[in-house]
């Protein structure tokens, strides 16, 4: 209610004195009611004075969002007050007159868009955007906001990320969580906890841009002649997985550099460029793709489970609890995103661990022989057991909540600064 009052004052305060007088309030009501009436008539396609389920579906479809009849019914029920399963003008006006969701695009937003949550492993499946949003530049502003949120989030949780990588590689030597943290600080001081963070932040922007462009092209190939239609969940999974694989293929050398820089000893490299030169001189170009196969294979379970769990949880909440609103709310979406990302990581973590060990082994950090993906898997299971496939997962889980929180707060502020509607 407090947020609603702030919103009404902000849009109605024409003289910008921070207060809402009676004249400004009545002017807001007249203007907004006029906009609502025009919107109502544009949705009422058969001009019978009522909006039904089919008309809601049609209006959402025109915005690039396909919803089932059941989902459209839920949206209608959140506005329908007399139980007729249609919306008349008075119901429409009463629902939206004091509601920040003041057009169908806002309602569509909650059904269509996921939140940009960066927990160090970016969401594999890009967001869905309408043709209008692409033409207006909303897409790129949203990508910039997401990149900034990811940069701040990853920097804030970098010590936990470095601890995760350290335990993935050296955890079999009996190094504990606190022992690993203490050892890193003793070896290089507090600043060493941020080793590898620079390139981890640097790769966010190119990966996001490549993934989005590849996703749009793959989506066009899947969709074919159905211009303007949204993809089904399984089609989004396929397109997202292929787009993620494309982005990873192009930026993968940066992943190898990130692992080497994260694990480096004090004075081992003078910087990113020196690290790249030493790898190239001592190991050749192939070293920049060590661990590429398990990394690419890990995209499939991560993307599939992340997307499926997110969509299932969000839609289940909307179906069961959102009888009074089409908006599931920020906390629900944050919860769905956190749970889905965590489930995706659980499924793909063994492949991520094998990838990291292959990347690290290439530099002979521990003098171990270089093993293939299958060789790594057999070695870990035979020497450390199945739990060995999940070494370092504790700090990975510890960083989820702070990473999600930081990412969301920065993302929302960046969207406002860049003029992207929240």
Level-2 CATH architecture of the largest domain: Alpha/alpha barrel
Tell me the CATH superfamily of the largest domain: Mitochondrial carrier domain
Low-confidence stretches: none
**Number of separate domains:** 2
What is the CATH topology descriptor of the largest domain? Mitochondrial carrier fold
Principal-axes geometry comes out as elongated
On the 0 to 100 scale, the average pLDDT is: 80
What is the top-level CATH class of the largest domain?
A: Mainly Alpha
Q: Features of this protein?
A:
mainly alpha, calcium ion binding, 2 strands, Mitochondrial carrier fold, repeat, Recoverin, domain 1, transmembrane, mitochondrion, 68% helix
Topology:
Elements (H helix, E strand, L loop, with lengths): L1 H11 L9 H22 L6 E2 L1 H10 L6 H9 L9 E2 H8 L7 H9 L18 H6 L1 H19 L1 H13 L6 H12 L8 H6 L1 H20 L9 H31 L8 H12 L8 H30 L8 H32 L11 H12 L8 H6 L1 H19 L4
Antiparallel strand pairs: 1-2
Helix pairs in contact: 1-2, 2-5, 3-4, 8-12, 8-19, 9-10, 12-13, 13-15, 15-16
GO biological process, one term: transmembrane transport
Subcellular location: Mitochondrion inner membrane
Family: Belongs to the mitochondrial carrier (TC 2.A.29) family.
Question: Concise description?
Answer:
This protein has helices at 2-12, 22-43, 53-62, 69-77, 89-96, 104-112, 131-136, 138-156, 158-170, 177-188, 197-202, 204-223, 233-263, 272-283, 292-321, 330-361, 373-384, 393-398, 400-418; strands spanning 50-51, 87-88. It is mostly helical and 422 residues long.
